[in-house]
Amino acid sequence: MAKKETKYIVAVKEYETTVKNLSNGTIKMERAASIYKALFENVLFTCDSYEGLKRFIKQNKYNKKDCAHYWEGLVASGHTIATLLYDTDDENFVETCCDNEQLIYISNWIK
User: Fold this and answer.
1) Strand order in the sheet with 79-88
2) For 58-109, what is each residue's pLDDT tens digit?
3) What secondary structure, in 3-state letters, does 14-83 show?
4) Distance between CA 39 and CA 50 in Å, rounded?
5) What is the pLDDT of residues 24-69, one digit of tens each?
């Protein structure tokens, strides 16, 4: 199966610290630190405030009424929502990398 360019939307608790710790292996997760480093190299958009949420939803071409309430809750609990671009042959790759505490899988779609 060929690699596909896939966009993933994830929520990251304490974004800067978590991404840094995942990349250097300080936080132990399901996959190797190099995988998380590669995953966060291609961040397209991020949102960490209510003010930027409407724009973030438009950038990702989602319907506001379908996702705004859930995403507002994530932002309120201290998460940053990020759109990542990652090439993989496994469609469920990011979903299996997330621990649902510091890194929460939200959605994906294939280009």
Assistant:
1) 43-47, 79-88, 4-13, 103-110
2) 999 999 998 999 999 999 999 999 999 988 777 778 888 889 889 999 998 7
3) CHHHHHHHHHHCCCCCCCCHHHHHHHCCCEEEEECCHHHHHHHHHHCCCCHHHHHHHHHHHHHCCEEEEE
4) 25
5) 989 888 888 888 898 899 999 999 999 999 999 999 999 999 899 9
* Six token digits for residue 25: 């292996």
Measured from the Cβ of residue 63, the count of other Cβ atoms closer than 10 Å reads 8
Measured between alpha carbons, how far is residue 100 from residues 12, 29, 51, 73 in Å? 9, 11, 25, 14
Q: What is the pTM of this model?
A: 0.87
Q: What is the DSSP letter of 94?
A: H
CA distance linking residue 57 with residue 61, whole number of Å = 6
DSSP 96: H
On the 0-12 / 13-18 / 19+ scale of CB atoms within 10 A, 38 is: middle
